[in-house]
Amino acid sequence: MNLAITDVRLTPILVADPPLLNTQGVHQPYTPRLIVEVVTADGVTGLGETYGDTKYLELARPFAERLKGRQVSDLNGLFTLADQLAVDAARVENAVDVGGLRGVQTAGKLRLSVVSAFEVACLDALGKTLGLPVHALLGGKVRDAVEYSAYLFYKWAGHPEGVACEKDDWGAAVDPAGVVAQARRFTERYGFTSFKLKGGVFPPDEEIAAVRALAEAFPGHPLRLDPNGAWSLETSLKVARELGDVLEYLEDPTLGTPAMAEVAERTGVPLATNMCVTTFAEIKEAFTTGTRGAVQVVLSDHHYWGGLRNTQQLAAVCRTFGVGVSMHSNTHLGISLAAMTHVAATVPNLHHACDSHYPWQSEDVLTERLSFEGGRVTVSDAPGLGVELDRERLAALHRRWLEDDGALRDRDDAAAMRVVDPEWVTPSMPRW
Q1: pTM across the whole model
Q2: Which candidate in 198, 221, 303, 342 is catalytic?
Q3: From the CB of residue 174, how many other CB atoms can be counted at a distance below 10 Å?
Q4: What secondary structure letter does DSSP report for 84?
């Protein structure tokens, strides 16, 4: 058994994305992702996936070269290598990370987002070599299936006329009736029993009405609303008070830990975040500010926390402070969903359904798509992640990336909105 890494392949791709709306604008017709393959001396290939924007590629390429010759089991060494990578400050300083809508990007977050894909690929290769599933390498699963929520979006019926895109059959959702219809379709297709609405798109009263409509259509089902920090403190208090009786939690209603703490203390509505707790350094303030703390649920994302083992460490810290944990998602494919499912299966205190964009993605790079049954994904016991790469499909999505003139290689929701509204600029926060 030879665990030495002999080759690393990086394949940037463009993946079809529907016209989903958020407070920044609208999703472009194609979103960049990066597929990582780590090959060992025994010919075993491990798979990973992360953001594919240019700034990630610029770090992934030198990282891949430094990885050759190292042991696929040397997971701790990945972070040492990452610390040696120089980051162009101009790319991250005061830049909002649109891909994850998780606040301001930093050099450290950028590095961790790159490391995460290589860590998953190494775990996949190691599992295949040892004949063990990734969850076994992480200590073993505590559940056989992982629950996911229906991720609802305000949405146009299609991308603007004349824009190259892939068609979808979801239809428009720009009012409460459209949101409820979308939720019903999610339930019919995938069996989801909890629902999250991406807010920050329309004035708060309209989004309150949409959540109320969901509560009437799906009585007793867990509901969430996430405006990505688009509201002022006063608006956040108003929405929390009006929806407190139906929300499982309110996610990032306003920006900043102090404001979140005030909302939590003055309303008693549980608050979740993937914006004010995105690094270990941010945990102390968020968990100890205010009587109840600023957040009651942290939404982890292995892509920007640095991988699956860091996700487990985050969950342990949350358990220590009595804070709930679940998972955030952005546009992703099956490799990422498989990784999310493996680590989620190992976290004892994961009591909230995880987010996933996967049902929105009509394309994938796997030979067989992962499936949701009753809103859950079964945890694979096959070696590694339990997924197989479709090389023809990967090549096709890579060709799309190669043929792009550069306009789509960096996600820009505001630029996509300007196709419809030339005067559109990214709204300043708070928006309402």
Answers
A1: 0.96
A2: 198
A3: 16
A4: T
